[in-house]
Amino acid sequence: MTEFKALGSLSVVRDGDTEPIGGARQRRLLAMLMIHRNAVVSVDRLAEAVFAGEPTRDAQTTMRSYIARIRRVIGAEDADVNVVTQAPGYALRAPDSVTDVGRFEQLLADGQSHLLRGDPSLATASIREGLGLWHGEAYVEFADEEWARPEAQRLGELHAVAEERLIDAELTCGRAGDVIARLETLIDEHPLREGFRAQLMTALYRTGRQADALRAFRHYREMLADEVGLDPSPTLIDLERRILDHDETLQLVESVSEPLLGYRLGERLGNGPNGALHVARLPGVDEEYVIAIRRDERVDTLEFVRTFEANAHELASLRHPALVPIHDYWREPGAAYVVSRRLRMRSLRNLIEQVSLTTDDVVEMVRRIGGALVLAEDRGVRHGSISLDSILIDERGSSYITDFTIVHESEPHDVADLAATVAACVHQNRRDGDPTHGAASTPCSPVAPLHRTQRRWPGSSMTSPRR
Fold first, then answer.
1. What is the Cα–Cα distance from 325 to 215, expressed in whole angstroms?
2. Which one-letter DSSP state was computed for residue 138?
3. What pLDDT, on the 0 to 100 scale, is given for residue 282?
4. Distance CA 296, CA 106 (A)
5. ω into residue 88 within 30 of 0, thus cis?
6. What are phi and psi of 344, to 5 degrees?
7. Which of 24, 89, 202, 403 is the 20 to 30 A CA-CA neighbour of 458?
8. What's the confidence (pLDDT) of residue 448?
């Protein structure tokens, strides 16, 4: 796969490796084609840029050799990506998905759409991913050249717009205190951009710093008068008035995805695949829950948000006798939450430390757990954390699977993990001297057949999850 990068130093990446583009002229040629992607650029316009306004007598011949070299850099693996010859010049044919500029613009549009639909958390993830594509100024090595300046300036303005929309989303999520330092940096970079000033005043006011918010306005008014002889806009003047009047509408009326959504936390139970585990209750509900809380930087990435929502939704809709379903789930900037009913059962680990399982016990357990895992796999959800602790046993000996990993950090290996869990049962039996669990059954036998037939769940006619 070929990728074109212009948000910083110009580069072409093929299958993860950066390709050598050539000298300054070839770089100018490629940059010109990228700026006018999917449009024909005349040979005369290209020559004017490539030869810095002084094309040679053999410019057209030289251009053909440069085009041939760029085609070799791009490669011919992808039919949708190529430099085509079309009168009166050449065109770079490439979809938005293979350029960092195209991806950035799409992610920004997605973020703005999420904001309009009232989902600032997803807007935050989308815009952050878009801003993460930037590694310097757009077309930085050509930004002062006349042919590249308009595009560099356009993208620079879009970058500032993305920063504003990101701050809008984070303010809507109730993170006023988290954005103040970033806004101060952005104001240093864009001293005349009024949107950042208004956001800083709002953020300061929401964190109880009314005097600082008013001081920020006065500083901007004085700077504006000294440098350009203008007054702040009526909108900003009105914002100052509202801050002076302690206008209640300036406060965030309701934090989006309010933490814990009414759940009251109890004792901490430890850690699970989805975060720290706590006992939780809902006022007026005579039932206990377990809530997993994950707080780290990755929960704000677009990949995590999309995968979390999709997998949690599917898992919450699953119905199987051996599956402990999700009761509730949600996310907010910096955190994700998964709630399930608290089942007062023994873990398989706890059970085998006290008694030995028979072959019939293990076959029945694998039949039930395997059936639940296959059902989940058919709906696109894999477990990713099967162990002696994720299998629960009730007082009648029935087994249940819990602790599905909502977003996988690495490739799940559910079949191998279940085999290892069964092997642990066998190992425990052998360590205990193979005592029998009941007169009608024999102790658990070795699990070599399980390893030989890992494409089928033992005790079940259903095939194992695909890897």
1. 53
2. B
3. 76
4. 26
5. yes
6. -85, 75
7. 403
8. 35
Q: How does residue 241 score in pLDDT terms, banded at 50, 70 and 90?
A: very high
Concatenating the DSSP letter of every residue in 141-169 gives GGTTSTTTHHHHHHHHHHHHHHHHHHHHH
Query: Considering only CA atoms, which of 307, 326, 306, 330 is closest in space to residue 315?
Result: 326
Give 165's pLDDT tier (boundaries 50, 70, 90).
Answer: very high
pLDDT score recorded for residue 432: 60
**d(C-alpha 176, C-alpha 168), whole Å:** 10
Closest to 334 measured CA to CA, from 252, 405, 275? 275
- Strand positions, DSSP E, 89-226: 89-93
Q: Is the pLDDT of residue 264 over 50?
A: yes
Check residue 332 and report its DSSP letter.
E
In this prediction, residue 254 has a pLDDT band, given cuts at 50, 70 and 90, of: very low
In 326-395 the beta strands, taken as DSSP E runs, fall at 326-332, 335-341, 346-347, 391-393
> Which range has highest mean pLDDT (34-48, 74-88, 453-467)?
34-48
Look at residue 277 and tell me whether its pLDDT is greater than 90.
Answer: no
Q: What token pair was written down for 9? A: 């130093």
The domain defined by 346-452 folds into Transferase(Phosphotransferase); domain 1 (1.10.510)
According to DSSP, the residues that pair with 242 across neighbouring strands are none
Fold that domain 1-162 belongs to in CATH: Arc Repressor Mutant, subunit A (1.10.10)
**Does 208 have pLDDT greater than 90?**
yes
Please tell me the number of Cα atoms within 13 Å of 433 on its side-chain side.
Answer: 1
At 106, which amino acid appears? Q
Helical spans, DSSP H, in 379-464: 414-431, 448-452
Task: Report the CATH architecture of 174-251.
Answer: Alpha Horseshoe (1.25)
Alpha-carbon gap, residue 167 to 16, rounded angstroms? 32
| Higher pLDDT, residue 257 or 123 | 123
- Express as a percent the part of the chain with pLDDT over 90: 46
Q: 429: burial class by Cβ within 10 Å (0-12, 13-18, 19+)?
A: buried
Domain residue spans in the chain?
A: 1-162, 174-251, 259-341, 346-452
DSSP class of 342: P
Q: 402: which 2 tokens?
A: 């819990």
Q: What is the CATH number of domain 259-341?
A: 3.30.200.20
Nearest of 104, 67, 64, 101 to residue 82 by alpha carbon: 67
